[in-house]
Structures are given as structure tokens and as C-alpha cells.
């Protein structure tokens, strides 16, 4: 008869124990050992075959059973001893028994030494000590943890859950009024970014090991990454989470700390990475390391680039969030060279520059995920969730903020009531701070004084600041209340503790309104020197720049921005004027009134004195864009057309970013009343055809290039008319149309040859079939005028080669070269017959 482990356990061991003076209540079969994993937040379960306790609940011995055919090995001994040593409830079992029914071994649990014979002698020290263990108990317990809680596939996910719960504790809460950034019950799914993230990490044709999540401040990046962590862990995708502001000793040291805390081993980062890759490879999984708020790493933000490089592998993926305005600072080194993350996500300087003011149209070829303000569907979902959670109702219309941060503040402040249709961000922040302080028993006067004194310290020393720099009123008790209120947060390291504001906007408000009172200073145009002095002082520190940008970007202070801009535009220090560019672009996004006509006089001045280079060309183009966006086209079509021409001259975004990301795409995106659309493109064809005749050849050339981008076939159909009109305008049509014709050649090459992963139409045509003939006959009259114009250049030769290839594929016998004539540069002919 063959006996199994279960047979040995129940028919041999259990019956033997009953024959001893042990009751059935003291015998536990397949006892589950609970071992704490992580920072006191998770348990993993390990099973022992038999545990014996005395009547007081003290553990006496553990019996590990193997089947009779199993030869007892050293590993079996380590397993049994580890179970006995790791028992938390009832203490360490002093004796460990290992048996396969044929052979039985008895061990001293602490020393691991085998006890000879078939019984424990009555003179054994544990027996004489009432079964209490002695010796190196701590060492034995630690050794057991190393064995049972080793870094393995079974334990990795549980480790991740504990790690994420601990690291997210400062950000996540189920309390609606906790002030925490991530409240799961009111979280609004950002389905577009979430699907894009999944695809770029796991499911797409080209997956990435490094991804950057970016967007303006307080638009929901932290909530998004916290929700990603929750979602991934719920479907058993291992991931860990780190707020960047807490990485004082770096990401690698934080990883080492978490693994050592959990697994009780002195792992090096190399050992951790090797073990992780081995486990993930076997289980065909990935570990996602999520770092939130990279822009808040002020001392050594660039170090994260090198740490990501060291961790870079096919099984470890890194996702980092940062405000878009900080990207250039953290993606490039001091010499202006792209760092590892920048190269990995494939962002160019031009794309980074655009991200500072507006999202990119497309990030499909980039390792970037954009989080912007709520779209209409997300606003509707947010209002439904907030109405239910906070028992509020939203008034229709008005200028209610669409960014997640302010929409939530409005819901909190008007809980159990009606949220008015307004956009006063200052009032929302003020009321939010009052509400949070009341919940933590901070009096209003104490709050006001504390905010002013904190703002003064951080404005001077930057943020975060060491705790010893705080005003004396912030003792340990008071500081605890401010942290509990989610106004401040403590950042602890091995050497010191630092303090920072929990929300950046709370700090911005405290500096700009409470401490510096810019709302009073900047509203008086005669405060010329005072305003310049304030701005020069503010831009010296990071928190000063942040507060100033928030203040000037806020719709509440739109009139203050106009005054500041007018004063700085007259000052000799044009560097200060450049600072206003970003707030102006932010106001374009935030202020529904879009009243930027006041920019016109200054833009005219900048353009007129361009030889002195008061601003960079790209900065002028961004201001022109802000102004053009504010023009009412139906009322001021001539002004609109004039400034579109100016923008064409100054804007290099077409060359730097491509048509899809250019300012023209932003201006003409969607249907504009009174302006035709063509071929589903974004461009106003009629307007740009008029700009072909602009007296400035650079403007005319760029207008032609946009027309070629909008539709290469339409451009070819109208090419002869374009030539004639430009020639009659006493301009050089050949140079004006050259860039556009190069774009036509590229478009045709992509259509027929394929410049992407897919093959072009040419490779699918059969020799001599009707479709090949149709393509040749269709294309020949369209490209011959361009070939004739540029017969002596690469454009003409490339188009002629394409046409010849189609002719050969169509099996048409004619010589194209004989039909081409070279145009006399001094004479223009339009009656050309093919």
C-alpha cells in the first residue's frame, strides 16, 4: 500500500500524538503561519503540516511531513526549521520534527542541531526551562524570514501591494474632506491617457521601458498615477510607487530600503535587479516603477536619469510624472544635452517648448502621456460623482474651472448646497485652507499668521526647507496638525526632516496673495519701479517663479497681467518681459473671455524693433498666437488675416514640429464659421491662397507649404494657377513654391513607396493591370508642370523617376524625357500640352 503525505499526517502522526498526553485541542493540522510582509500592511501565508501547543497556547513543536518515497534532504530541514522559528503567535516552537513515515529527525529549533534518539531527553534545556527557547532567538527568527520571505514570484505581488499602500498613504484617502490628492470614490477615469499608457507599456507594437506622464500643475497627474497603481495591482501586475519629493537619497536607495525592510536581507541594487528580472522572466511579467512629481526633486533631479538608465531592462519599466513647465530643466543637463529619459521618450526641444503652453496633438510616436484639463465627457462624469459624494448641484453656464483641482475644491466648499458658476480660484483656495484648518483644530488667526510666516521662509529659502528653518510657532504638535490638515507634508531622510506644502497652489497663493500682496501692488500702473523690483526678486527662486506664474496666469488677475506686461515692455530689461509669455499663454487656455487685443500694440513694437532682438523669435510667435486666438474672426477678418501672415513669418513650428503640431493647426483645428474647410484638413484654403501673394516672400513660401501639407493633390491641381498668380505679383514663383513642391514629392513618395512600416501602393500594383494604368494616367498631368519647373533639381528628378516607375509598372511604351521642356526663366508659359 502506497501512503501519501496526508496519510502519514492523519494516520501516523496524528494517532501518535493522541497516544501522547496531548489533547486534540492542542493539535493543529495544516496550520497557517502568518508572517508580516512589508511595512506592517500585508501578510503572506506559509503552511506547516502539524503544530502542537500546550494548554496555555505556547507552541511546543512543529512536525513537517513528507511522503514515504521522499528522501529527507537539507532543504526539508530548512523549511521545517523556518516554520518553527517564524511563528508569531505563541512564540517559537522549541522543537522541530521532520518525518516521511520511515525516517524521523528531531531538531533543536534555535540551533538547528539534530537531537539523537527517538525522544527529547527530559534534561534538555528547553524542557527544563518550561519549553521556553534560549540562545540566538533573533538570529534564528531573521534566518527564518530570509527563507520564507525570499524575493520570489509568489511574494513579489504581495510586496508590491504593501509597498504601494505605504508610499501612497500621504496621497490617498477614502475621506472626502481629508484634503488628500487621490480619493478613489470621486476619481474620474481618464480613459484616453489610461489606454495609451497600457498600449505603450504592454500591448502596442512598440512598447517602452520609460514613459513620461506630463501636464500642467493640479490637472490630476497624481490621482491618475495612483489609480494606475490600484488598477494594475488589482489585476496582478507588479508595480511600486514613489513620490519623487521623498527620494532624497535617490530612487535606487529607496528601492534597496524597501526590499531590505521587507525581506530582511542586505541586497545590493544589482542583486535586486538581477533577481527581479529572473522572476519576471519566468512569470512573463513586468515590474512597473511609478515616480510621481519629478519636478518636485529640486536638489538632484538629473540623478533620476542615471538611475533609470541603471534599471533599464526589458522587464523593469519606469513611469515618471512631471509638470510640463519643468521638463526642460529635468530632461537636459547643464550643457544642454538630452539626458537618458529625454532620449528614451524621444522628445525634442521644440516639442517640450510647445508642451509648456499646450498639449501636443499627437504623442503616438513618443514615450509621453498627457494629462490636461477635463474634456466635456470627463467634466460630466466629475459633476455626477461630485454631486453624489458631496451632495451638491452645479449651476449651468458661467466660467466654472474645468481643471480637476479647482472643480473638486468647488465641490468641497459648497457641499450640501449649490456650486455657483464662477471661476474665482483665489476664493476657492482660501476657503479650502479654512476648511482644512478647521478640521484639524487650527484657528483662523493661527492659519493666517502661519501661512504668511511659512510663505516668507519658503520664498527666501525655496521649497522644501529644513524643519529647523521654520518659525518657532511650528513646534512638533502644531506641525502635526498642519500635516494632518493636508496643508503641509513632512519629508524625512536619514539625516534630516524637511517641510513642503502639500499642494503647490496653496504655496503659490500664500506667497502671491498673503505674503507679497501682488494683487495690490500690480494693479497700480504707476508702481513702475516697485513692480519691476518685485518681479526681479521673485524670479530668483523656484517657489518665487512658481508663485508669480500662478498669479499672472490666474483669470482672477487678468488685469494685473496687462499692467505688468505693459510696464515690462517699456523697460530696458527685456529678459523680464520673456517671463510674461507663459502666463499669457496660460490665460489663453483659462480665460474664456480671450480679450487679448491689448497685445497688438506691443507685438507691433517688438516686430518693428526686431533688429535689437528684444525677444527670441519663438517667443514673439507664441505671443502672436495668443493674440490671434483672441481675435473675433467674424468681426475682424482683415486683422485676423494680417496677423496670420505675421505669424507665418515668425513661426518655425511647421519645420520644428510638423504641420499637425504647428500653431496653424491649433488655430484652424475644427470648423470655423465663415471659413471653408478642404479635404477634411485644418486649413483655411482661401486665406492661404491669398497669402501666396504676400509681399514678403517668406510668408508666401510658408503659406504654400501649408497648402501642400493640407492636400498634396489639391496643390498639384492648382499648381499652374499658383504659378501664374505669383508671377503676375512680380514675385519669384520658383523659390516661393519650392518647399511646397518638396512636400508634394514626400507625400507622393509615401503614397506609392511607403516611408513608414507599411508598403506603398506601388508594391501592390500588378504589371500591366488597369489599376497601374489608372495611377499613371492620373498622376502624369498633375506632376508634369512641377517637373518642368524643377527639371534641373532633385524635385524634378525624383518626380520623374516616380512617374517612370509607374509607367513601367503600367507597361505603357512612351518616353517621358522627350516630353519635358526646360522653362525659360525670363518667360512663363501656361499653354503647355502633354
Largest sheet: 5 strands, mixed
The helix/strand class is alpha/beta
Number of strands: 15
What's the average pLDDT? 84
Q: What share of residues is helical?
A: 40-55%
Cα-atom radius of gyration? 36 Å
The top-level CATH class of the domain at 153-372 is Alpha Beta
Stretches where pLDDT falls below 50 for ≥5 residues?
Answer: 609-614, 670-680, 824-834
Strand order, sheet with most strands:
1-2-3-4-5
Can you describe what's shown?
This protein is α/β, with parallel strands linked by helices. Among the domains are: about 5-150, Alpha-Beta Complex (tt1808, chain A), CATH 3.90.1570.30; about 155-370, Rossmann fold (3-Layer(aba) Sandwich), CATH 3.40.50; about 375-420, no CATH class; about 670-834. About 50% of the residues lie in helices and about 10% in strands. The protein is built from 37 helices and 15 strands. The strands form four sheets. It has a five-stranded mixed beta sheet with strand order 1-2-3-4-5, sandwiched between helices. Strands 7-8-9-6-10 form a five-stranded parallel beta sheet. The model is unreliable at about 610-615, about 670-680 and about 825-834 (pLDDT under 50).
Amino acid at each position: 500500500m502506497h501512503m501519501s503525505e496526508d496519510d502519514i499526517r492523519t494516520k501516523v502522526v496524528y494517532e501518535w500524538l493522541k497516544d501522547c498526553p496531548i489533547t486534540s485541542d492542542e493539535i493543529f493540522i495544516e496550520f497557517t503561519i502568518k508572517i508580516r510582509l512589508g511595512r506592517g500592511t500585508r501578510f503572506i501565508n506559509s503552511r506547516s503540516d502539524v503544530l502542537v501547543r500546550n494548554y496555555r497556547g505556547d507552541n511546543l513543536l512543529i512536525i513537517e511531513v513528507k511522503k514515504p518515497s521522499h528522501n529527507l534532504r537539507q532543504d526539508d530541514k530548512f523549511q521545517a526549521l523556518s516554520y518553527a522559528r517564524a511563528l508569531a503567535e505563541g512564540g517559537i516552537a522549541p522543537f522541530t520534527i521532520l518525518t516521511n513515515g520511515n525516517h524521523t529527525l528531531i531538531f533543536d529549533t534555535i540551533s538547528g542541531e539534530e537531537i539523537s534518539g527517538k525522544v527529547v531527553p527530559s534534561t534538555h534545556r528547553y524542557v527544563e526551562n518550561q519549553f521556553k527557547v534560549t540562545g540566538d532567538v533573533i538570529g534564528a527568527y531573521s534566518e527564518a524570514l530570509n527563507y520564507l520571505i525570499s524575493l520570489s514570484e509568489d511574494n513579489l505581488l504581495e510586496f508590491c501591494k504593501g509597498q504601494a499602500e505605504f508610499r501612497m498613504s500621504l496621497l490617498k484617502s477614502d475621506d472626502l474632506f481629508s484634503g488628500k490628492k487621490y480619493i478613489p470614490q470621486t476619481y474620474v477615469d481618464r480613459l484616453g491617457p489610461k489606454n495609451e499608457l497600457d498600449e505603450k507599456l504592454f500591448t502596442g507594437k512598440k512598447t517602452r521601458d520609460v514613459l513620461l506622464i506630463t501636464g500642467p500643475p493640479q490637472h490630476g497627474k497624481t490621482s491618475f498615477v495612483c489609480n494606475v497603481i490600484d488598477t494594475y495591482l488589482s489585476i496582478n501586475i507588479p508595480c511600486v510607487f514613489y513620490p519623487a519629493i521623498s527620494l532624497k537619497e535617490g530612487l535606487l536607495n529607496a528601492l534597496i530600503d524597501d526590499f531590505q525592510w521587507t525581506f530582511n536581507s542586505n541586497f545590493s541594487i544589482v542583486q535586486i535587479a538581477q533577481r527581479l528580472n529572473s522572476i519576471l522572466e519566468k512569470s512573463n511579467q513586468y515590474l512597473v516603477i511609478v515616480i510621481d512629481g519629478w519636478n518636485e526633486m529640486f536638489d538632484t533631479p538629473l540623478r533620476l536619469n542615471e538611475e533609470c538608465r541603471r534599471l533599464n531592462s526589458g522587464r523593469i519599466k519606469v513611469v515618471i510624472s512631471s509638470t510640463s513647465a519643468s521638463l526642460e530643466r529635468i530632461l537636459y543637463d547643464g550643457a544642454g544635452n538630452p539626458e537618458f529619459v529625454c532620449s528614451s521618450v524621444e522628445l525634442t526641444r521644440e516639442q517640450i517648448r510647445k508642451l509648456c503652453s499646450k498639449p501636443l496633438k499627437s504623442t503616438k510616436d513618443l514615450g509621453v502621456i498627457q494629462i490636461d484639463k477635463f474634456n466635456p465627457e470627463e467634466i460630466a462624469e466629475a459633476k455626477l460623482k461630485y454631486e453624489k459624494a458631496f451632495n451638491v448641484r452645479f449651476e449651468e453656464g458661467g466660467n466654472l474651472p474645468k481643471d480637476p483641482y479647482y472643480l473638486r475644491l468647488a465641490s468641497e466648499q459648497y457641499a450640501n448646497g449649490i456650486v455657483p458658476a464662477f471661476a474665482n480660484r483665489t476664493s476657492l483656495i482660501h476657503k479650502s485652507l479654512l476648511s482644512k484648518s478647521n478640521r484639524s483644530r487650527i484657528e483662523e488667526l493661527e492659519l493666517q499668521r502661519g501661512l504668511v510666516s511659512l510663505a516668507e521662509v519658503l520664498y527666501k529659502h525655496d521649497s522644501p526647507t529644513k524643519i529647523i528653518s521654520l518659525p518657532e510657532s511650528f513646534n512638533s504638535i502644531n506641525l502635526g496638525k498642519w500635516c494632518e490638515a493636508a496643508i503641509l507634508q513632512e519629508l524625512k531622510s536619514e539625516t534630516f526632516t524637511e517641510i513642503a506644502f502639500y499642494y503647490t497652489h496653496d504655496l503659490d497663493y500664500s506667497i502671491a496673495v498673503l505674503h507679497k500682496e501682488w494683487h495690490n501692488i500690480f494693479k497700480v500702473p504707476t508702481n513702475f519701479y516697485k513692480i519691476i523690483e518685485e518681479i526681479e526678486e521673485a524670479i530668483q527662486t523656484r517657489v518665487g517663479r512658481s508663485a508669480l506664474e500662478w498669479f499672472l496666469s490666474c483669470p482672477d488677475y487678468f488685469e494685473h497681467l496687462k499692467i505688468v506686461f505693459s510696464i515690462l515692455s517699456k523697460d530696458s530689461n527685456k529678459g523680464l518681459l520673456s517671463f510674461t509669455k507663459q502666463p499669457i499663454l496660460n490665460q489663453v487656455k483659462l480665460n474664456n473671455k480671450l480679450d487679448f487685443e491689448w497685445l497688438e500694440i506691443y507685438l507691433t513694437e517688438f516686430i518693428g524693433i526686431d533688429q535689437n532682438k528684444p525677444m527670441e523669435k519663438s517667443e514673439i510667435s507664441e505671443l502672436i498666437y495668443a493674440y490671434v486666438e483672441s481675435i473675433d474672426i467674424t468681426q475682424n477678418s482683415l486683422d485676423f488675416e494680417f496677423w496670420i501672415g505675421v505669424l507665418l513669418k515668425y513661426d518655425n513650428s511647421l519645420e520644428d514640429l510638423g504641420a499637425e503640431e504647428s500653431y496653424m493647426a491649433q488655430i484652424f483645428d475644427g470648423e470655423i464659421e465663415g471659413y471653408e474647410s478642404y479635404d477634411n484638413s485644418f486649413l483655411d484654403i482661401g486665406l492661404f491662397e491669398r497669402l501666396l501673394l504676400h509681399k514678403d516672400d517668406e510668408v508666401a513660401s510658408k503659406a504654400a507649404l501649408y497648402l501642400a501639407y493640407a492636400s498634396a493633390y489639391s496643390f498639384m491641381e492648382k499648381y499652374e494657377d499658383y504659378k501664374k498668380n505669383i508671377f503676375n505679383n512680380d514675385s519669384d514663383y520658383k523659390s516661393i513654391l519650392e518647399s511646397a513642391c518638396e512636400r508634394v514629392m514626400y507625400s507622393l513618395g509615401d503614397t506609392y513607396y511607403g516611408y513608414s512600416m507599411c508598403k506603398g501602393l506601388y508594391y501592390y500594383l500588378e504589371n500591366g493591370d488597369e489599376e497601374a494604368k489608372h495611377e499613371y494616367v492620373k498622376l502624369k498631368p498633375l506632376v508634369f508642370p512641377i517637373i518642368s519647373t524643377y527639371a534641373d533639381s532633385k524635385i524634378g528628378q525624383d518626380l520623374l523617376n516616380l512617374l517612370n516607375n509607374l509607367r513601367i509598372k503600367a507597361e505603357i511604351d512612351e518616353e517621358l524625357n522627350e516630353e519635358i521642356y526646360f522653362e525659360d526663366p525670363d518667360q512663363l508659359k501656361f499653354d503647355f500640352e502633354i
